[in-house]
Amino acid sequence: MAKLTRDVLASYLAEMPAGHIFDLPYAQFAGLFPPGEPDPFARSALRAFAGECGCDLVQIVSEERFELRKRTAQQS
Prior knowledge:
It is built from three helices and three strands; from the N terminus they run αβααββ.
C-alpha cells in the first residue's frame, strides 16, 4: 500500500461522497502533521486541512483517532 501523504489524502477526500467518514489514527496523523498528538499546532493544521477538503474534524480520544467527515451540501 502506498504511503499516505497530504496530497493523497486530499485527493481521496475530494472524491469521498458527502456524509462519509475517513478514519485517521494518531500514528498516521503524526506522519502527516508532525509531531502529531497532543501538539496543538499539529491539531490546528489538521483542522484547517480538513476544512479545505470540505470535511469536519472530530477527535475520538478514547480510540486515538480523528474522523474527517465529508460535509453535505447544506453544511458547506
